[in-house]
Amino acid sequence: MSLLSVVKDVCAGVGILIPTSVFSNVNNIRTMQEMLSLANEMAQRIAYNTREWTLLKEINVITGDGTTPSFSMPADYQRMLVSANIWRSTSAIHPMRFIPDTDDWIQRRALKRINAWGEWTIMGGKIYFWPVLAAGVTATFAYLNKNCITLASGGAGTIFQSDQDSFALEERLLKLGMIWQWKASKGGAYAEDMGTWSDALNVAEGADQPAPILINRAPISALSTTANIAYPFPAPYPYP
Question: At a CB cut-off of 8 Å and minimum separation 6, what does 66 contact?
Answer without folding.
Answer: 132, 133, 134, 135
